[in-house]
Specification:
The chain is an all-alpha fold. The protein has a domain at 31-106. The protein is built from three helices and no strands. The chain has helices at 22-25, 40-62, 79-106. The longest helix is centred in the last third of the chain and has 28 residues, at 79-106. The two termini are 46 Å apart.
Length: 114
């Protein structure tokens, strides 16, 4: 490989001022630059489903003698909304983990705040 800028010019210096196309200068959005919006209906479905999940977990832990209720049918999401839901759930999981780390720190139970 030749690192000399002019080595491959073959005596032609006309391409020295070549402009890089703007599409090549765009960067991939960083996670904090990506914004997604869920509709009120989608958020309502998530929070209602979350309440069902909390009930299921509570019953598994505290009321083992009761029959376990069936799971509700899965909502049908478009691919775009499905990806947004995955990101939403991941964000909520991370928020919960951060809250628990803060709680441990504030109560003096070890661990460091995030």
């Amino acid at each position: 490989m030749n690192n000399d800028n002019y080595a491959n010019a073959n005596g032609e210096l006309e391409n020295l001022h070549y402009e890089i196309p703007q599409r090549l200068l765009r960067h991939t959005p960083r996670p904090r630059e990506v914004v997604f919006m869920l509709t009120r209906t989608q958020l309502a479905i998530m929070y209602i489903t979350w309440a069902v999940v909390r009930h299921h977990v509570h019953q598994r832990v505290h009321q083992l003698e009761l029959p376990f209720p069936p799971y509700p049918p899965h909502p049908v999401w478009s691919d775009e909304v499905r990806v947004m839901m995955i990101l939403w759930v991941a964000r909520e999981r991370r928020m919960f983990e951060m809250e628990m780390a803060e709680l441990e720190y504030i109560l003096g139970l070890g661990g460091a705040a995030c």
